[in-house]
Amino acid sequence: MTVKGFKTWLEFKDIFGFDQNNKDAENSYKNDMPIKSFDLEKLFSILASKKIGTNEGRSNFMNEVQWGDNSGSIKCWCGTGLNLMIDRLGSDLTGNPTWYTKRIFQINRGGYGGYEDIVANEVLDEVQIINKEDTDSPKKEYDKLENLVIQMADSIRRNAKNIFIYEGIKKVSNSNYIIRLGVKGHGNQAPDHQRVEENQTSIIFEKEKGMIRILNYNIESGMGQHEWAMSPSDTDLNFFPTQENSEIIETITNTLKWY
């Protein structure tokens, strides 16, 4: 297999060269051979051994590495869904330190063991790019939320996982919008399971903090009922208004593309 930079592999730079049509995995299946899994612990061990600027890498947990402790510091961590997150530390309008999202990628653990060092270098390239940028900042006023939501909805409609059906945008207020997605086959759960009625993405400008908050969650009902109850949020992300729309949109679209 030829290993190349993740930017050329998939749109949204989603899985660091681990394309869905994994040729090694396909060949392994054909030959009835085991697939070597990607080692997340090794990845984070490599990341923790590297410096970013003058900051040493520090591993707070097995799935997290942090460079620095002050404003502008960077953190890379992996969630339970194998989403690789790169966050940066800023401050909201109240002066509270706040981690905000810069990148989200999806890691495919199957079939790519042995390439952890290459993936680590690609991650570090992204971290270095972020480190050279100015730290983003809050704003007292933000009048571009509707434009952000329209662009985000279009990206989600075109790129979300194919279990979703785009239903439209609901305007709650000038500072709160909801992107609604129906779910295919949502009525087939077992009797004791919750039925997913809808998936929703809430985009909120929190004026007191001067930040944008994005949550993704399901609206669920018990089987044979129509409760339409909000489930705990799968995704709860912070952004600053000074970030490019494309950066904000890419992160939430990746979340729904690899849901």
Characterize the structure shown.
The chain is an alpha+beta fold and 259 residues long. The protein has two domains: 6-132, no CATH class; 145-257. The chain is built from five helices and twelve strands. The strands form two sheets. A six-stranded antiparallel sheet has the order 1-2-3-4-5-6. Strands 7, 8, 9, 10, 11 and 12 form a six-stranded antiparallel sheet that branches. A hairpin with a 6-residue loop joins strand 3 and strand 4 (74-78). Helix 2 packs across helix 3 and helix 4 (145-159) runs parallel beside helix 5. The longest helix has 17 residues, at 116-132. The chain is globular and about 45 Å long.
What characterizes the major β-sheet? 6 strands, antiparallel
Radius of gyration: 20 Å
Beta-strand content bin: 25-35%
Shape, principal axes of CA atoms: globular
Query: N- to C-terminal separation?
Result: 27 Å
Number of helices: 5
* Strand order, sheet with most strands: 1-2-3-4-5-6
The share of residues in helices is 10-25%
Instruction: Report the strand count.
Output: 12
Mean pLDDT: 81
Number of domains: 2
Low-pLDDT runs: 1-34
Order of helices and strands: HHEEEEEEHHEEEEEEH
Kindly name the structural category. alpha+beta
Task: Set out the fold topology.
Blueprint: H1 23-30, H2 40-48, E1 51-52, E2 55-61, E3 64-67, E4 74-78, E5 83-91, E6 97-106, H3 116-132, H4 145-159, E7 164-173, E8 176-183, E9 194-206, E10 211-222, E11 229-230, E12 235-239, H5 245-257
Antiparallel strand pairs: 1-2, 2-3, 3-4, 4-5, 5-6, 7-8, 8-9, 9-10, 10-11, 10-12
